[in-house]
Design a protein that fits this description.
11 helices; alpha/beta; four-stranded parallel β-sheet; Rossmann fold; 275 residues; single chain
Length: 275
């Protein structure tokens, strides 16, 4: 089965996309073609959108699904006249929340992405800059400034996890890739040992690593299954020597990995504060 799905918003569409993706993930066996339509903020643009929706309906033989975060009533009504199955995500929560709070919603667009807490926003920007500047072990001398240091073989998920921790939680995250030189020496740099209480090892299944590396450098020795198996085996020895917590990234999403790390970091902070 194929269904076209539109993520529609009068702003960036990030909220519609995130909520829509979460809902679609619960339905297997459907080939969803995703179409992103941000900044549908006039009736003219809404009319143009309806033409695209109708084309998708004619092509698929089924009405497209429209996930919307549309606060403008007039634009919303235009979209609802089309051939798509319209789901206004804000409606599900807005009125019940308004009744509970005893306040009417402002219905101002773009509020979900506004900088409402400048201090938190600045912290996240600083964390993102730190993660990008301390990627792939380029500045091990900065590890002492990090909240988290991720350790693992090449392509085990270190960089995207660091960026996610920075963007969503404001954590200062650095990472160090275990290289062939480290394997030859049989040890890691002193800077890693100095902060081992902040270090988390990322482990991954050899077959999965082989597939990931093959996408980048197909047919190379670096991507071979044997090399992947050897790298993982030697990395495990180093993790055990360090005595660090190890997380398996094989079947976990970046969000899941990050949540485990965040939970461990908060637990350490509470213990340090004597709670």
């Amino acid at each position: 089965m194929k269904r076209t799905v539109f993520f529609v918003s009068e702003s960036t569409g990030i909220t519609a996309e995130a909520m829509g993706h979460s809902l679609l993930s619960q339905f297997e066996g459907v080939d969803f073609e995703r179409v992103y339509m941000p900044f549908i903020n006039t009736e003219q643009r809404a009319q143009a959108l309806l033409e695209v929706v109708q084309e998708a309906a004619d092509r698929d033989g089924a009405r497209p699904i429209i996930f919307s975060t549309m606060l403008d009533e007039e634009v919303r009504e235009v979209i609802k006249t089309g051939s798509g199955y319209f789901l206004e995500l804000f409606d599900v929560f807005m009125e019940p929340l308004s009744r509970e709070l005893g306040l009417p919603p402002s219905r101002k667009s773009g509020r979900s992405h506004a900088i409402t807490e400048p201090t938190t926003y600045i912290k996240r920007i600083d964390a993102i800059n730190f993660a990008m500047s301390n990627d792939d072990g380029v500045r091990p001398d900065n590890f002492y400034r990090a909240d988290v240091v991720l350790l693992g073989v090449s392509r085990s998920g270190k960089t995207p996890t660091c960026i996610y921790l920075a963007m969503h939680y404001g954590l200062m995250a650095a990472n160090y890739p275990i290289t062939e030189e480290d394997f030859e020496k049989g040890d890691l740099p002193r800077e890693v040992y100095d902060v081992k209480e902040k270090v988390y090892g990322l482990m991954i299944d050899a077959q999965r690593l082989h597939l990931i590396r093959s996408e980048r450098r197909a047919g190379s020795e670096y991507a071979s299954l044997k090399r992947c198996q050897d790298d993982i085996r030697r990395a495990q020895v180093m993790f055990q020597r360090l005595g660090i917590r190890v997380l398996d990234t094989t079947s976990q999403s970046i969000e899941e990995i990050a949540s485990h790390i965040l939970k461990a970091v908060k637990l350490k902070q509470r213990r340090a504060e004597g709670h």
